[in-house]
């Protein structure tokens, strides 16, 4: 009996020894900080709508236990527990969810909130995609952290292929001076480091306020008139074209107004750093093509 028991124990030990050991996961976020996990994250809290969407794209949607308001895409995101808004996080709700990873937005979430969560020992991945190509890398890194790397790699490759197609189609088109309007009061646009500025460049456009380093600078009507854009593009708050886009019609000295180049792109497609950004880019590129077609014959 002793020999039989010994053989059984030996077989169990040998089988266990042959199992692969889960290595520590190590990923650098967009700030250069290294996030280390002993195993793939199983309870993720996402602190921005675009990060929730990107996690789903990376195959990690089922691991999200908490997110913020306006996280409504894909539809399954609407059923996830809310922990406030991206700028006003309910820290107690976050900690009550016992997350083993928090995915946060560097320029959108309050640093004080993140510091408090970090002080509790919760690993935090900080995201800040400023170039379109950054989105693909983001998908891959989140996939590694969530243990869905294979799904994430496929999604990232699809994104890169589609982006390359847009570069090939629009990258050499004649430049269009473009003003992108985020909001009316205050009158806000995008600076050169903001990802929307990269979308404009992808489409062969030139952001008339691209020299500004602020992500979302406030400008004046006089500055827009002086910049004389050939196209004005706005997004507003939802799927409806904002009424205030037509307020520019009173300034017919602006080339964009004189030629009727007042365009709309839904904000979810261009103001969120997700795979759907390429849908927004496609629409913007088509608008700038329309602007080119309205140039006087030479």
UniProtKB/TrEMBL annotation:
InterPro entries: ABC_Transporter_SBP, ABC_transptr_periplasmic_BD, Vit_B12_bind_prot. SUPFAM superfamilies: Helical backbone' metal receptor. The lineage of its organism: Bacteria, Pseudomonadati, Pseudomonadota, Betaproteobacteria, Candidatus Accumulibacter. CDD domains: BtuF. This is Cobalamin-binding protein. The keyword Coiled coil does not apply. Gene3D superfamilies: Nitrogenase molybdenum iron protein domain (3.40.50.1980). Residues 1-23 form the signal peptide. One of its GO terms (biological process) is cellular response to iron ion. Residues 43-292 form the Fe/B12 periplasmic-binding domain.
């Amino acid at each position: 009996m002793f020999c039989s028991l010994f053989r059984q124990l030996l077989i169990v030990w040998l089988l266990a020894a042959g199992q692969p050991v889960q290595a520590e996961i190590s990923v650098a976020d967009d700030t250069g900080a290294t996030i280390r996990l002993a195993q793939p994250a199983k309870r993720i809290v996402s602190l921005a709508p675009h990060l929730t969407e990107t996690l789903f794209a990376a195959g990690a949607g089922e691991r999200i236990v908490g997110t913020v308001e306006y996280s409504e895409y894909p539809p399954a995101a609407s059923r996830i527990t809310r922990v406030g808004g991206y700028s006003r996080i309910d820290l107690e709700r976050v900690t009550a969810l016992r997350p083993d990873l928090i995915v946060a937005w560097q320029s959108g979430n309050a640093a004080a909130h993140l510091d408090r969560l970090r002080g509790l020992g919760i690993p935090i991945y900080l995201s800040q995609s400023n170039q379109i190509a950054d989105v693909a890398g983001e998908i891959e890194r989140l996939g590694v952290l969530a243990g869905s790397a294979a799904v994430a790699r496929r999604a990232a490759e699809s994104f890169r292929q589609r982006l390359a197609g847009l570069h090939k189609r629009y990258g050499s088109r004649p430049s269009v001076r473009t003003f992108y309007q985020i909001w009316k009061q205050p009158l806000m646009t995008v600076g050169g480091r903001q990802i929307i500025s990269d979308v404009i460049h992808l489409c062969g456009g030139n952001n008339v306020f691209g020299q500004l380093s602020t992500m979302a600078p406030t400008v004046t009507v006089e500055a827009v008139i002086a910049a004389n854009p050939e196209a004005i593009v706005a997004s507003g708050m939802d799927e409806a074209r904002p009424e205030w886009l037509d307020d520019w019609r009173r300034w017919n000295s602006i080339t964009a107004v004189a030629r009727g180049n007042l365009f709309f792109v839904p904000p979810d497609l261009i103001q969120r750093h997700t795979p759907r950004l390429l849908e927004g880019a496609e629409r913007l590129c088509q608008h700038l093509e329309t602007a080119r077609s309205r140039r006087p014959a030479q």
